[in-house]
Amino acid sequence: MKPAPFEYHAPAGLEEAVGLLAELGDEAKALAGGQSLIPMLALRLAVFDHLVDLRRVAGLRGIERRDGSLWIGAGTTQAAIQRSAEVAEAVPLLARATPLIGHFQIRSRGTIGGSIAHADAAAEYPAVALALGAEFEAMSPRGGRTIPAAEFFTGMWTTALADDELLTGIRFPVRPARSGYAIEEFARRHGDFALAGAAVAVELDGPRIRRCGIGLFGLGPTALRAAAAEAELAGADPAGVDAEEVGRLAVSALESVPADLHGSAGYRKRVGAAMVARAWQRAVQEAGDD
Amino acid sequence: MTDVDIQLKVNGTVRRATVPPRLVLADFLRVNCGLTGTHLGCEHGVCGACTILLDGEAVRACLVFAVQADGSEITTIEGIAAPDGALSPVQAAFRDHHGLQCGFCTPGFVISATALLQENPAPTDEEIREGLSGNLCRCTGYQGILNAVRAAADPGTD
User: Fold this and answer.
1) Is residue A77 a part of any domain in this protein?
2) Which residues form the FAD-binding PCMH-type domain (chain A) (predicted)?
3) B81 contacts chain A (CB < 8 A)
């Protein structure tokens, strides 16, 4: 047994789950699919005295239209998202990002809420949520609140969630007409964490760009929005935009780009710019064809 | 730390046990059930040797605590062949196409290939490669494995 010993809790309801988290404080961690948490426990990169398993908590799974958004329960597995025709239709960027996560044996356990709450800098879903302007529903003993994706990812493996707060669902805007989406990443092998990647959403209004969302991953301590590039592109005519310039602009303001034996910070920035340029081109083309 | 009572079905047999929460499912299968066909390589979700079917889906048994599998149905490599011992199509194809060398990674590959073909009975070579990319073979016998899965998908292409 490689992980350190811990006390196991499997509450049946949301109220009980957040009550446990509140009572146990930072000695407890919520366990969803466990595909990031269990390796960290096995390697003892993380040690918790208590794990609160969410598998019995009702109301955390499902994919449904709610008030013009697509709501996905935080406990919904990546495999269920990959199989969902509703997701492919309403949130194509999420559907396209999902096969890039780990391997299918990981996706059969891994959950969307786990991916987002774990907030790994190289993970796909946080960048997708940023690009689309998704909203996160969170619950604590103090009640529920909604957190915009842009305010959620605060640092390395760190989010706006309090110790006693659970991510319960994610609301994605349903794809409007004349929009296009693409995700590009560069990994050493399929299923590896990306060295750098970008998720791009483009919405057109007449000949001009109404909104462009660019989420970057593997390029900082957490997923990041390329805000300067997004602002530059809003209102522009895509015909006059140079894709490589979009890429350069998107990575220009990056600080603390990771560096390791697989690539220096400078290399990752160049790869990141290329991923943005490719995703931008594909997204704009799809929006124009739509 | 408090041990937890669990009950699950492994290869059709009901198993009850009281286990420490930190016991991973792979260790439960090997130690508590004596099913040592599920191999443990990396023990942190990279190598795929411990792949099993949990409620019909391929998962890494090193990335599931046994307590999380309470109430579920597990199929290990010991449950893949027919009750009379006849090899499954995937197992037979691994034998016929030299899909194994030392054999350490084989249980994981057989389970992954079985799940892959259940979901996609006629995969392209690219889809087979992608489906098997979560399993490592340190003998690097990947071509034989690829040939085996291709043959299992379509026995007519020998």
Assistant:
1) yes
2) 1-177
3) no
List A201's β-bridge partners, or say none.
A181, A213
Identify the CATH number of the domain in which residue B107 sits. Answer: 1.10.150.120
Residue B48 belongs to a domain: yes
Q: Report residue B1's pLDDT band, with 50, 70 and 90 as the boundaries.
A: confident
Instruction: Give how many domains chain A has, as a whole number.
Output: 3
Final residue belonging to a domain, choices A144, A173, A202: A173
- What's the full length of chain B, in residues? 158
pLDDT tens readout for residues B65-86: 999 999 999 999 999 999 999 9
Per the CB < 8 A criterion, the answer to whether A91 and A98 are in contact is no
Query: What burial class does residue A256 get, using C-beta atoms within 10 Å of its C-beta: 0-12 exposed, 13-18 middle, 19+ buried?
Result: exposed
Residues A144 and A187 in one domain: no
Task: Look at strands A196-205 and B13-19 and give their pairing.
Answer: unpaired
Task: From A48, A44, A110, select the one nearest A79 (Cα to Cα).
Answer: A110
The domain boundary, picked from A106, A141, A173, lies at: A173
* pLDDT tens readout for residues B17-57: 999 999 999 999 999 999 999 999 999 999 999 999 999 99
Q: Is B58:B52 a contact under the CB 8 Å cutoff?
A: yes
d(CA B100, CA A160): 48
Query: pLDDT tens digits, residue range A240-272?
Result: 999 999 999 999 999 999 999 999 999 999 999
Contacts of residue A76 in chain B, CB cutoff 8 Å? none
Do residues B11 and B74 share a domain?
A: yes
With CB atoms and an 8 Å threshold, state whether A8 touches B21: yes
Query: What CA–CA distance (Å, rounded) separates A16 from A57?
Result: 9
ipTM: 0.94
- The residue from B79, B98, B123 where one domain ends is B79
A54 vs B contacts (CB less than 8 Å) = none
Residues A150, A213: contact at Cβ < 8 Å? no
Q: How confident is the model at residue B157 (pLDDT cuts 50, 70, 90)?
A: low
pTM of this structure: 0.95
A256 touches chain B (CB under 8 A): no
Give the residue numbers spanning the domain of A73. Answer: 63-173
Residues B40 and B69 in one domain: yes
Q: What range defines the domain where residue B28 resides? A: 4-79
How many residue pairs from chains A and B have C-beta atoms closer than 8 A?
92
What whole-number distance in Å separates Cα of residue B153 and Cα of residue B113? 9
Per DSSP, what are the bridge partners of residue A167? Answer: A138
* Tokens read off for A87: 């997701």
